[in-house]
Amino acid sequence: MASDGYRSLQEIQKKIFDFGKFTIEAHFNPGRIISSSAKVDSKSISDRPCFLCPKNLPPEQKALKIVGEYILLVNPFPIFDKHFTIPVVTHRPQLIYKEIESMLDISFMLGSKYSVFYNGPKCGASAPDHLHFQAGNFGYMKIDSEYESIVNSFGQTIQSNEKCRTISVTGCLRNFLSIESNDKKEIIKEFYKIYDVLMKDEDEPLLNIICRYDEKWRLMIFPRTKHRPSHFFEEGEGKYLISPAAVDLGGVLIFPREEDFKRINKELITDIFKQVTFSDDEFNKIINRLNDKK
Ligand SMILES: [Zn+2]
Fold this sequence. Notes:
By secondary structure, the chain is of the alpha+beta class.
């Protein structure tokens, strides 16, 4: 399964879209059809055997114990050349609140060669019932290499002290927040402020998170308004099978159907991001609420 998956990566077709100070890539990756079209309603989830529970893993699947209850597995349906799934060994829901420290620890352990990411239960996780992170080789997502220039062009420091800096980034299609620090406690404290401001009447705010450790952590938080854009639900011409998650917000949009990939253009990319993330106005209100908290 895994060798088929990794072999198929060599045939991936790519298109690069230049947005001036940043780029977005579109990938045609038929191997991701199951993940992108996954039914994640509670009935479909409870009717299927959980593919992250140790008892349901393929017998060939080996695991490395890494942090606490977390194990590192090869992802047999890869997006990255090196793609890991990092679940806990017990079956419990995908919720970040108590796990943010583990995410930082995993990122620290994997080091600068990997980005670790989290997809919220309603933001692209195909196993919303089983707590997990993923990791992929650093440099694959556009945001990995463009982060500094994006922050320089679009970022605004909204909090800083000698230990920690929080930045809001507006105007690069998907508005996001980033916390930079080598002090784990500081980063967690800042993360909770953001989490609280985003929290509504739900299990957790809609979000994706991308983390990397290279002498310090940088934790990018992408608040979301929606799970899937309208294109996902259209019939006929208007349909595009796309279900944005952390990798897409990281600048690599994954299209599992060739007919969608062929038609992709800048307007469509802009519309997809616009639908699933906060507008500049709404995002600025979030920043204001964050500033009020200080
Ligand atoms: Zn499970």
